[in-house]
Amino acid sequence: MPVCPLDYRYGREEVKSIFSEESKLKFMLQVELALLKAHAKFGNIPDDCVEVVESKIPEVKLNRAKKIESEIKHDVMAMVKALAELCGECGKYIHLGATSNDIIDTATALQLKQFMEILEKDLVELEDSLASLVREHRHTIMLGRTHGQAAVPITFGLKMAVFLAEVLRHHERLRELKKRILVGKMMGAVGTGAALGKNALEIQAQVMNYLGLNEEESPTQIVARDRYVEFVSFLAGIATSLEKFATEIRNLQRSEIGEVQESFDVEKQVGSSTMAHKRNPITAENICGLARIVRGFLIPTHESAILWHERDLTNSSAERFIIPHVCTLVDDILVKSSRLFRNLQVNKEVMLKNLRVHEEVMAEAVIMHHVSKGWGRQEAHEAVRRVAMKGGRFRDALMKDEKIGPYVRDEIQEILDPLKYVGVADRIIDRILTRMDELRK
Questions:
Q1: Known catalytic residues?
Q2: pLDDT tens profile 322-356
Q3: Among 29, 164, 167, 335, which is most exposed with the fewest C-beta within 10 angstroms?
Q4: What Å distances lie between residue 351 and 17, 137, 161, 354, 418, CA to CA?
Q5: Whether this model's pTM surpasses 0.70
């Protein structure tokens, strides 16, 4: 009976299949075959045994390996025995010179390699969704907000460009960290390669070359776990960005703001079991909740890097949870984020209305106007602050003030026009879009 929500509610089969028992077995057998090929290359085993073992690998069944494991209580040796019993005399060469985590960690690297291909596609999809909003709304004016309060004008296109720039940084990080994460080892029980003989380093290099992985330059019994710490931290960083983006959408969808809305099927979708009027931001909320689960795996990942001597087993059980869950969940929320932004309803009229209601947000523009007329910055700030603190209609208060009024009376309309106070937003947007294009070359 399924217990974990990944089994029945969250995650795509495309990703979950990478971390299934069947796939794990397939990847471990792939590593064992690469080791045999390397041994054959250096004359340690007969060449024809590589062909025999390779032909038998498709016949290894998960239920047989699990049956053996139930008897011997060791998953890797169960896999080795399940393969060896099919290979006759050649079975004696399987797992030659290796330790269990040579196979497990290298197989994990193969899983992560396949996952990273999907992850990069996910990032590209999200970039495209955001870039579309950037281009469409580069001149859509709205309130900027700091501390939850009205600040100065911004464009919705620039807001989305800020999100896009953050995703591009994650994309760059992904490409850069592959060389440190997609790493396997074949150096035996404590990392010396003793059981592989004088050509141990060359055998390891050959195995990784076959598999398209980098080598662990400082092995113990395992691949160094600072690599996993970096990888899970990276995924937690993506999750944090996505939660930030989704939180902004949730805030802008609040009834008293109403500037954006998630897509909602008004013909069929139900927002509440009792409040028939509700259109809740359920996708954004779901993204936020799952992102917190991803970050929750940071502590056990760090703790699993603290092992006795050349390795103990305290990391193993934790990593069985950590790696499949963080990969599956980050893919899930990336896909949901792309869909959220791709189908986002942007209420431009509401944005403009909310901006017009808060005319006082143009106070900075008034200050800068006075500076251009020869006032000192501090003097202008105090004069405008004093007027703003009086409340009431900002425009009228400015016109009535005996110090400020004479400087703004003839130009008040232009000074208080928010469309003319978005600085170099266009240039910032262009710079970010250009960086996206460069990243994809």
A1: 147, 272
A2: 999 999 999 999 999 999 999 999 999 999 999 99
A3: 335
A4: 44, 12, 17, 5, 12
A5: yes
